Amino acid sequence: MEERIAVYPGTFDPITNGHLNIIERAARNFDVLYVTVLKNSSKKSLFDLEERMRLIAESTASIPNVRVESSGGLLVDYAKEKSAHVVIRGLRAVSDFEYELQIAAMNNKLDPELETFFMMTNPSYSFLSSSIVREVASYGRSVDDLVPKPVSLALKAKF
Length: 159
Ligand code: ADP
Known about the structure:
It catalyses: (R)-4'-phosphopantetheine + ATP + H(+) = 3'-dephospho-CoA + diphosphate. The chain is an alpha/beta fold. 41% of the residues lie in helices and 19% in strands.
């Protein structure tokens, strides 16, 4: 049978337990899950691309079918190159919906074969975002319960 391949794209600046929860659950439902850091020129990031990839790789080391990559192109082109038929996105609250709908609609127009699957976040992470994590950590407060261990170490080194 053909391999079921999915892509979970994002900025991951840095990866949080919310992202990790989606990754763990998505990885159980696909043969291969690419976690792909998108190069976003309009966003100034705290961690550079290599650091973000390393933190994802360390945080997902125990999940054998996860592959960490980066991409600077259009998501639909990247997905095709990887033979992925599904894009995974996480939904936290109603506030995510409009933005996600817009992206999914555009991707569908660009490549109708590519499906977007939405996964509801675990309620314990519904308030969690990379930006909140960066903000709190920048004031020297602990975010240990909110991020994987490699990320909390990297944040301590940074601030
Ligand atoms: P982007 O800039 O593409 O939104 P993010 O790294 O912020 O990149 O998010 C990547 C994906 O992960 C998005 O689908 C986002 O909705 C989802 N996500 C972000 N935070 C969480 C969370 N706490 N729980 C579940 N999904 C999340």
